[in-house]
Amino acid sequence: MEEQTFASQLNDVLGTISGFVWGPWLLIPLLFGTGLVLTIRLRGVQFRKLGAALRHGLLDRDDEGGEGDISQYQALTTALAATVGVGNIVGVATALSIGGPGALFWMWVTGLVGMASKYAEAFLGVRFRTTDKKGNISGGPQRYLEHGIKGGLGKFLAWFFAIAAVIASFGIGNLTQANAVAEGLKDTFDIDPRLTAVFLFVGVGAVLMGGIKSIGTVTSGFVPMMIVIYLGGGIIVLIKHAAEIPAAFGMIFSDAFTGTSAVGGFIGSSIIIVMQMGFARGIFSNESGMGSAAVAASAAKTSHPVRQGLVSMTQTFIDTIIVVTMTGLVIVTTGVWDLGADQAGVMTARAYSAGLGSDWGGMIVSVSVVFFAFSTLLGWSYYGERNAQRVFGDWASPIYRMLFTCVVVVGATTELELAWTFADLANGLMALPNLIGLLILSGLIARETKAYLDFDPTLQATPEQVEQFLIDSGNPWRTDPNRAIDIPHEAQDAK
Q1: What is the DSSP letter of 131?
Q2: What 3-state class would DSSP assign to 84?
Q3: Beta-bridge partner residues of 138
Q4: Residue 422: partners with Cβ closer than 8 Å, 6 or more residues away
Q5: Could you tell me if 348 and 140 are in contact, meaning their C-beta atoms sit under 8 angstroms apart?
Q6: What is the span of the domain harbouring residue 353?
Q7: Domain for residue 495, yes or no?
Q8: Alpha-carbon distance 331 to 224, whole Å?
Q9: Which of 83, 97, 195, 236 shows a CA-CA span of 20 to 30 A to 107?
Q10: In Å, what is the CA distance from 112 to each residue of 119, 168, 258, 446?
Q11: How far apart are the first and last CA of the chain?
């Protein structure tokens, strides 16, 4: 009884801290404000170059002649694997159940400005990436905060991020995702969570043994499949409810600026609540500004940081503008959004069932949750490993992989209210140092982005042309396999 009381008290304390970190006076305005500042400084790069970025990432797939461990497409799908998750299903439902249909509009806003943040952190991840003693490329906020921001501030921000990322990888990236897989399989197919735990232990362990190349190979085939299944079901629902789509958009836009009146099980919300829920759940869904996706982007084969930054930017577009929109429209058009906040966990399943029938609708949502959660496990394992390596050294990688695989079993077989609270807090603590760094380095990002896009506006320059550009601009940023892991690019260039 004392242990339960202590756990409950700890959960309340962590919940209070997390509520402040993710509240309207700290992280939400900082995340949105950073995205807005970068959007302005980069002259709306997410709007100007979205078409070229989608073509380069999804059709070209590989940047011929570029250095890296995995292709640009694999880096994109690895980041999508970690980002497109339970938040795209339950998170959207939670936002609508509390804030009403207008919350979806503000989720779109966070996605659009968040694309600039995602571009910036991926750009920096490649720009300041390093090569370890085994020849593997490593990068992310744990690198670019230290090497891009000179002095004690940069080192402090880098270490703060790395420690928070390792902690978060076991929370939102492991325990909660494994639990979602186990619950989904139990509810839909009545599979014992202990059996799921064994499956996850073997499956995750097998993939992690191969490192980022193995993760990239699995996610490059896995992620498109899971998104297509989920979107395919949603499209069928929207076709069957096509008559309700115009009214749904009307509610979304009108309620975004007026709040939502009480109806059904919905208790009503002010415009402040609508905006807060839209911002919080949108940011939580696409992770723009958190710095996590920069870790995967850093491993990509690319001939220039701008090219990978633009590819990574499309991740937020796919996550928020496509997947989140599908979830939101299905919930609003089927009329289940007003069931009440206590029904948020099953709201998306009910919406799909309304259009596809109870069996097929519920099954698609349950299977999607399993796919999304499993892919998130793989993506976050890499994020956590790279940051563990930064904190403890190269020797930590195999130990981290074994520990991460074992914790999956705990997540699949345990109730995790405390883990969810802890994970939310760790995610917020990750974002803080990264956002500060993005603002400090925004001038460098804008300057080098403009220079490259003036040279190659369509991302179709040959490797030889890019090489000559790098020479002419005096900025040979590439990693050198022969240098030590902690030497920044600028220091190496000076040698």
Answers
A1: E
A2: coil
A3: 130
A4: 14, 167, 171
A5: no
A6: 11-471
A7: no
A8: 23
A9: 236
A10: 11, 25, 21, 18
A11: 63
* Identity of the amino acid at 65: G
Q: Is 88 helix (H, G, I), strand (E, B) or coil?
A: helix
CA 352 to chain centre: 24
**What is the CB-side half-sphere exposure of residue 208 using CA atoms within 13 A?**
30
Q: Could you give the number of structural domains in the chain? A: 1
Nearest to 96 by CA among 289, 316, 291, 248: 248
Burial tier of 324 (Cβ tally within 10 Å: 0-12, 13-18, 19+): buried
Q: Are 180 and 196 in contact (CB under 8 A)?
A: no
* Assigned token pair, 423: 């994970």
Tokens of 159: 């270490």
Read off the pTM. 0.87
Q: Is residue 5 part of a domain?
A: no
Check: CB of residue 382 under 8 Å from CB of residue 295.
yes
Contact yes or no for 369/89 (Cβ under 8 A):
yes
User: Helix 211-240 vs helix 193-209: angle between axes, to the nearest 10 degrees?
Assistant: 130
DSSP 256-325: HHH-B--BTTB--B-HHHHHHHHHHHHHHHH-TTSSHHHHHHTTB-BSSHHHHHHHHHHHHIIIIIIIIH
Cα–Cα distances (Å) from 416 to 68, 271, 370, 422, in that order, read 37, 32, 17, 10
Instruction: Please provide the size of the chain in residues.
Output: 495
485 is a domain residue:
no
Output the domain CATH number for residue 374. 1.10.4160
299, two tokens: 């491993």
Provide the residue-wise pLDDT of the chain in tens; the chain has 495 residues.
445 567 678 778 887 887 788 777 888 889 889 999 999 999 999 999 999 999 988 877 666 656 666 777 777 777 777 677 777 887 888 889 888 899 999 999 999 999 999 999 999 999 998 877 777 788 899 999 999 998 999 999 999 999 999 998 998 788 888 888 888 788 778 889 999 999 999 988 888 887 777 877 777 777 788 888 889 999 999 999 999 999 999 999 999 998 887 776 777 677 888 888 888 778 777 888 889 889 888 888 888 999 999 999 998 999 899 999 999 999 999 988 888 777 777 788 888 988 887 678 878 888 888 888 888 888 888 889 989 988 998 888 899 999 999 999 998 888 766 776 777 788 888 899 999 999 999 999 999 999 999 999 999 888 888 888 888 887 766 544 333 333 334 433 433
Spatial separation of the C-alpha atoms in residues 23 and 26, rounded to whole Å: 6
Burial-class residue 477 by CB neighbours within 10 Å (0-12, 13-18, 19+). middle
